[in-house]
Amino acid sequence: FANADNAKVGVMFFAEVVPQNLTNDLRSRGREEVVISGREIYFFYPDGMGKSKLMFPKLSQKGTVRNINTITKLVELNRQK
To answer: Were both Cys, which of 7, 25, 42, 79 would link to 57 (CB 3.0–4.6 Å)?
Structure first.
């Protein structure tokens, strides 16, 4: 989602590889886009994360979601150490 507003792109991080068929069970009433790559799931929320109706199937592993702005700040903080 290279041209998207960073605040509208999220990444969910996992400890293990995410099954590629996970997107088959996603439900959404909005315009969200989802891409799975290895241990991450990337989301584009064109209407904003707060307005998203995206529903995930129950995952066997837990992940955490951060938007690109937050990830960028965390990387910068880590470089300062």
So the answer is: 25
